[in-house]
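Regression test attached.
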Amino acid sequence: METTLAGHAMETLPHVTWLGVLIKAVIILAVISAIAGFGTFIERKVLAFMQRRLGPMHVGPFGLLQLAADGIKLFTKEDIVPQNANRFIFMIAPIITAATAFIALSAVPVFPDFTIPEFIPLLGGTFVPSIAADLNIGILFVLGMMAAGLYGPLLAGMSQANKWGIIGAARTAVQFLSYEVVTGLSILAPIMLVGSLSFVDFNDYQQGGIGSWLIWQQPVAFVLFLIAGFAETNRTPFDLLEHEAEVVSGYATEYSGMRWGMFFIGEYANMITVSIIAAVVFLGGYSVEGIGWLFIILKVAFFFFLMLWVRASWPHIRPDQLMWLCWKVLMPIALINILITAIVILL
Amino acid sequence: MGLEQFKNRNVGTQNYTKLDVGVKPATSMDQFKQVVKRTFKGELFVGLWVTLREMVNALFLDKMHTVKYPFEKMPISPRYRAIHDMLRLLESGHYRCIGCGLCEKICISNCISMDTRYDENQRKEVTEYTINFGRCIFCGYCAEVCPELAIVHGQRYETASEQRASFSLFEDMLTPIDKLNLQQEYDGFGAVSPNADANIKKTPLAY
């Protein structure tokens, strides 16, 4: 994956070297996994505050080192593979989730571009791009990768020889069949307006201040995309594939240690990806001059907080309700939205 | 008043107040209307507001629920039967126990054992007094029967121990003589807890 993406980037952007892309990939991997770990901490804190509890308190200042404690715990736990499980698929499934989440991030603008200062040996003067691979079909690639990420839960649930896992896998299929249509259709209308599938074009389209944000032209698509994004990341109103009260832990029932942790990292990386897409496509993204990069962080943080907020507030729905919602309500609305957008563009 | 109204199970003949559960949509148009109504009702945002309000309350208005237990403790009710205390007379500092032996007699788990003798003034003097807290069931009879309010239940409720048998001696339970001014009087059964006023809440069913 790495070499092909780097090769593609070299064709489209001549000043981006393979070294820059490699550095960018390492930065994304390191920072996003750190943020994903930090996200679990933030989630526990925010949920605690919303229930008037304190959350993690005792490990380090404000419980910050709870992250390290959890990491040590995950790494030192025994890696159990159940007796009747399909060993290979069982062991590779979490890697699919985590890997696809990070591959999706390779085509998403994360952090501003910068040049490594000259005084650093070996790497000095390397230009590190904002996007690891500036594909001209970025949105398609990201959505496809996030969809492929659902193979993780699906295979994990089917391979583990556990009833709850099977139910979790079945629910994964249900969820996958439901939201994916809405995701694609909801983002189609903004794509028609901008006329490109590249995130950079989306970003450039909305550079004229808050008034030029696509959310004002496409509020319906924005809401639909948010709903589908929640389903895509298995967040609370649609967390039916691992809902504790019903299916123990769903597809992750038999997992332990770092393999289970990889599902978590994948989920949080996906949350960040969806937040970034929502921020870039609908809320104006980033601007290169000044502190424009700070605003995208704020926007992404808002969407991340929204996901935690929703988890604290709303009950989750049944699988049949999810299918009903996606196929009978959201998909017609998305189609009508596309139709109206098309008519407006033609006029 | 007889029991007739409770025995009559024919629903509809009594004066019941029925809950308004609404009407189920009959036609598909009604169903559609219901969906639209529920979609645009904004109840989801009410839910979001509730959690945000609680977060603001907790973070900025000091309404956090958590008690950091080993560091903070809630005041316990005077009715709580914790580890026993032996109280002293406030005037003389002498222990209140007169060695009558009622607590030993009434103890239903036979965990109190005491030995007394007459001192030079022909007053009863306690020579041995132990409570086996491995046997004690904290029924509170000893404190209830004590005519001098000498043995009472104190505030120590953390009774975990490494051994099953843990004997407490008279001197261990007796108020230290240098802390006599801190000795707390027993409020008596039926007394309310010190934070009773703060605990008063509107019930969730106050409709």
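Expected vs. actual: identical. Residues 79-111+136-346 of chain A form one domain.
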